[in-house]
Every structure is written in structure tokens, then in C-alpha cells.
């Protein structure tokens, strides 16, 4: 009997891992960055991504994160629950932080700011501290800031900082 | 492992699979409708057309086209790769089109793990009335079948200018879009 229980437990464990894609990072929900809203300006696009197409100045986007009864800001996995995929031509070309708007009172809160240190295709993992200390009904979002493009020397852009989308991993 | 143990393991695996697949958290989500108010407009403000074209986004300009990209929420319940092995999800856009049309409509992904992305074949709609158009997700290198489940799906289209040019009364609009298995 004990052996049967052991075999059943082993089979159940194997089954869960076999049938749950992505279970290693919990429940994953993703959005293309086209859902992001630019602050006081128009959207700008790069290659399959949002961008900053100006030679100077930083462009700030706010990106909504869907939230429901099971997948909400204080139910994210403990390690790197937020992954923002993008590419940069310069170090600190992309800044990001995770925020909530409060559900029941005015205002909100944000976690620490993170920035890219490498160039090329990259992933930013902003702190989810504002999410994990939030209420399940608070409204999560991301703030992404893109530095201006690199000039080709004649007033046009030669390289851009881009964000393609973002993943959130829940328990 | 004895033959008996192997058989027991197999039976238990199947039993666990049935229990797991029937659990509430494993409930199948077969479609997802999305509002166009989430969509991104390239280098312009989002615009809302007047009645009877309202409850939608639209192009109010008689001279300038409007490029629109709309993210598709993707998760483990439903994503662009949902379905049986080798099968991918489908997507449809809904709205109204005038004589200038809704052009270049296609289903795309931005890659998660690399720069760039890909799109399926493009469709143009000149219905002069309401449209419901399924976008190609199966052809060529843009097929969703060849993308990763972690890629970011979206739909893209161009809402051409409103008509007639001297005082628009007919608009190209997007009222919604859906992802389904």
C-alpha cells in the first residue's frame, strides 16, 4: 500500500510538471507593448515595438497590467515576477518601475527604478515591491521611460531604445 | 522498477492527468474579446467617430491614414499558440469600412527573446459597411504556429481616410478584436 501511494505521488508530481506549461515560472500573462500609453504625447513605433523617435528628451509610457481574482499584484512569484523585453543602443536607455494605483483611496505607489546596463536585446526586471505590498484590488501598471534615439549626424535617427512587451508571472 | 510498478505508474499518471485537466484552475478558455480603446495609434491621437460609428476607434481625417496596433492579452489560459499540438489560435477584427478601406490588416507577434517580430499575410477590407474579418495566422514565416508561446501577439491595420473628403460621413473603424481557438 505504501509503495502504491509512493508511486501515485510520484506519478502525480510528474503529471503536474508535464501538463503545466510554464509552471516553473508560475502563471504567465503577457502583453505586447502596444497597449502602453504615452505621457502627454503620441505613440511612436519602432520595429515590432514602441519607441522614442526623438533625438532628445525622454519618452514615458504607462503600461496597464490586467488583474483578476486569481492573478493580482500581490500574488506574483517571488523571483523576478516582471520581465520587460526590449532592446537598447545605449546603457540606461530604458528605465522601468512597477506601480499600483490604489483602488480605494487617491494615489498609488511605485517600486524602485531599474535601468538597462547592457545594449542589444535585453530584459529588465523591475522590483515588484509596490505590488507585493498592495491590496489584491489595487490596479497594477508599469512605467517605462525611453531615452531619445541616436542621431545619424544629419538630424535623423540611427538607433533606438525599444520595448516589445512584458511578462508577469503569478503564483 | 518492476513491471507491476511501471504499470501502476502509468495508471496513476493517466488518473492524475484527468484530475489535473478537470480541475477549476485548468478550465479551458476558448475566446477573448478585446476593446480597441487599448490600441496604439502611430504618431497620432486616438480618435472616436460620431454616431452611428461610435463605440469604436476610427479615423476622422479626410487626408491622413491611421496605423493601429492592438495588443492581444496572452496567458496560459489562452494565447496565440493555444490548441492541440501543431494548432494555433485564430483572430478576428470587427468594425466598419468605407470605400477607402481598412488595409494591411494582419496578425503579428513581437518576439520575446530576440529583436523584431513577424506578421502573417495582409488583408484589405472595402465593405462599405460592417465587417468581421479573420486574419491569416497560418501562412508563411509569419504563422503563429512558428512562434513561441512567450512571444507578444497583436493585430495591425491601417484605417484609411474618411469619406467623402469634403465633409466626412463614412468612417473606417475598429470596434473590437478577438482571439479564439
Task: Provide a short characterization of the protein structure.
The complex is a heterodimer of chains A (171) and B (181). Chain A has 171 residues and is mainly beta.
Characterization of the model:
The complex is a heterodimer of chains A (171) and B (181). In chain A, 13% of the residues lie in helices and 39% in strands. Chain A is mainly β and 171 residues long. Chain A has a single domain (25-170), classed as Jelly Rolls, CATH 2.60.120. In chain A, strands 1, 3, 4, 6, 10 and 14 form a 6-stranded antiparallel sheet that branches. In chain A, strands 2, 5, 7, 8, 9 and 11 form a 6-stranded antiparallel sheet that branches. Chain A has a two-stranded antiparallel sheet with strand order 12-13. The longest helix of chain A is centred in the N-terminal third of the chain and has 18 residues, at 2-19. Chain A is elongated. Chain B is mainly β. Chain B has one domain: Galactose-binding domain-like (Jelly Rolls). Chain B contains 1 helix and 13 strands; from the N terminus they run H-E-E-E-E-E-E-E-E-E-E-E-E-E. Chain B has one helix at 3-22; strands at residues 31-34, 40-41, 57-58, 66-71, 74-75, 90-96, 102-110, 117-119, 123-125, 130-135, 152-159, 173-174, 176-180. In chain B, the strands form 3 sheets. In chain B, strands 2, 4, 7, 8, 9 and 11 form a 6-stranded antiparallel sheet that branches. In chain B, a hairpin with a 6-residue loop joins strand 7 and strand 8. Chain B is elongated. Chain B starts with a helix and ends with a strand. In chain B, 40% of the residues are buried. The chains are: A mainly beta (171), B mainly beta (181). At the A-B interface, helix 1, strand 1 and strand 14 of A face helix 1, strand 2, strand 4, strand 5 and strand 7 of B.
Amino acid at each position: 500500500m505504501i509503495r502504491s501511494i509512493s508511486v501515485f505521488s510520484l506519478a502525480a508530481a510528474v503529471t503536474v510538471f508535464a501538463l503545466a506549461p510554464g509552471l516553473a515560472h508560475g502563471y504567465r500573462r503577457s502583453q505586447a507593448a502596444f497597449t502602453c500609453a504615452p505621457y502627454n504625447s503620441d505613440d511612436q513605433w519602432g520595429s515590432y515595438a514602441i519607441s522614442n523617435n526623438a533625438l532628445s528628451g525622454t519618452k514615458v509610457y504607462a503600461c496597464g497590467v490586467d488583474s483578476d481574482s486569481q492573478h493580482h499584484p500581490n500574488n506574483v512569484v517571488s523571483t523576478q515576477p516582471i520581465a520587460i523585453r526590449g532592446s537598447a543602443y545605449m546603457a540606461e536607455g530604458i528605465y522601468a518601475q512597477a506601480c499600483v494605483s490604489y483602488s480605494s483611496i487617491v494615489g498609488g505607489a511605485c517600486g524602485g527604478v531599474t535601468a538597462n546596463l547592457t545594449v542589444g536585446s535585453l530584459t529588465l526586471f523591475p522590483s515588484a515591491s509596490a505590488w507585493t505590498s498592495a491590496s489584491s484590488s489595487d490596479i497594477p501598471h508599469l512605467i517605462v521611460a525611453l531615452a531619445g534615439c541616436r542621431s545619424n549626424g544629419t538630424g535623423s535617427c540611427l538607433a533606438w531604445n525599444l520595448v516589445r512587451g512584458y511578462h508577469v508571472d503569478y503564483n | 522498477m518492476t513491471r507491476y510498478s511501471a504499470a501502476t505508474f502509468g495508471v496513476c499518471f493517466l488518473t492524475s492527468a484527468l484530475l489535473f485537466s478537470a480541475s477549476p484552475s485548468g478550465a479551458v478558455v476558448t475566446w477573448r474579446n478585446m476593446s480597441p480603446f487599448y490600441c496604439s495609434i502611430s504618431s497620432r491621437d486616438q480618435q472616436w467617430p460620431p454616431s452611428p460609428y461610435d463605440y469604436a476607434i476610427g479615423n476622422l481625417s479626410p487626408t491622413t491614414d491611421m496605423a493601429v496596433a492592438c495588443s492581444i492579452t496572452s496567458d496560459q489560459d489562452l494565447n496565440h499558440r493555444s490548441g492541440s499540438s501543431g494548432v494555433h489560435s485564430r483572430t478576428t477584427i470587427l468594425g466598419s469600412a468605407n470605400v477607402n478601406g481598412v488595409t494591411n490588416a494582419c496578425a503579428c507577434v513581437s518576439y520575446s527573446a530576440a529583436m523584431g517580430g513577424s506578421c502573417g499575410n495582409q488583408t484589405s477590407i472595402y465593405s462599405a459597411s460592417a465587417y468581421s474579418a479573420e486574419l491569416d495566422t497560418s501562412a508563411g514565416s509569419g504563422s503563429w504556429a512558428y512562434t513561441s508561446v512567450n512571444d507578444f501577439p497583436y493585430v495591425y491595420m491601417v484605417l484609411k481616410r474618411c469619406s467623402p473628403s469634403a465633409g466626412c460621413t463614412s468612417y473606417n473603424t475598429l470596434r473590437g478584436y478577438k482571439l479564439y481557438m
